[in-house]
Structure formats: structure tokens, C-alpha cells
Write a structure and sequence with these properties.
The chain has 3 helices and no strands. It is 81% helix and 0% strand.
Length: 126
């Protein structure tokens, strides 16, 4: 019975903290700001990871485009160049949806971070 008494007292303090004018409004603001800061940190880590993958994909795509030729004048002895160009084009077509998906995810995540940051700033001023 002795172990549950502090727990019950803590629930009363938390229950009273939600009632304005009880003197615990500052505690509620601090808890809310800590909660937002933790989520903001997690969102920033996720955004940095997605954006890193996006940058790596863009670098890979740029190296593929460097090897791409606009025109090829081929005869029978240079048929291997046509095969290389087809493989290069196939790789670029495979990577295009990934670049779009990671770009969209990165953009949406940075918008979500901005919303959480603005909400946290507005909550802190009240």
C-alpha cells in the first residue's frame, strides 16, 4: 500500500495541472514544450536521413547523365556502345521514381517540421 501512495499523489498533481488557475500552468507548458522538442528532434533526424538518401540518389543520377550521349553514330564495330547507352537509360528510368518519392517525402517532412515548430512557438507565447 505504501508503494502506491506516491503514484496516487502524482496523478492528483497531474490532474490539477490541466485546470487553469491552479498554479500548475507553467508545469503544463514545460511538459508540452518538452514533448514538442522531442518530436521535433525525431522529425529532424528523419528529414536528414531522407534528404541524405535523396542527395545520394541525385549524385548517382548525375553520374549516369554524364555518361549519356545525345547522338550515337554507330556502325557494326561500335554496337557495344548502343548496348551501354540502353543500359544507362534503363538505370536512369529505374532511379527516376525513387528520386521523385524521396523528394516528395523530404518536402512533406520539412513542411511538417515547420508546422510543429510554429505550433510550439505559438504555444510558448500564450
Amino acid at each position: 500500500m505504501r508503494a502506491t501512495a506516491p503514484y496516487l499523489g502524482a496523478t492528483r498533481v497531474i490532474a490539477n495541472a490541466a485546470v487553469p488557475g491552479t498554479g500548475n500552468d507553467q508545469f503544463v507548458k514545460e511538459v508540452r514544450m518538452a514533448f514538442l522538442a522531442q518530436h521535433l528532434t525525431g522529425l529532424l533526424i528523419a528529414w536528414a536521413s531522407l534528404t541524405t538518401i535523396l542527395v545520394l540518389l541525385l549524385i548517382y543520377r548525375s553520374t549516369l547523365t554524364m555518361h549519356e550521349d545525345d547522338q550515337l553514330f554507330l556502325d557494326d564495330s561500335e554496337a557495344h556502345m548502343q548496348k551501354e547507352q540502353l543500359e544507362n537509360t534503363h538505370r536512369m528510368e529505374k532511379i527516376a521514381p525513387l528520386v521523385r518519392a524521396f523528394g516528395a517525402a523530404s518536402a512533406l517532412l520539412i513542411l511538417g517540421i515547420a508546422v510543429v515548430w510554429i505550433y510550439g512557438g505559438l504555444s510558448a507565447t500564450q
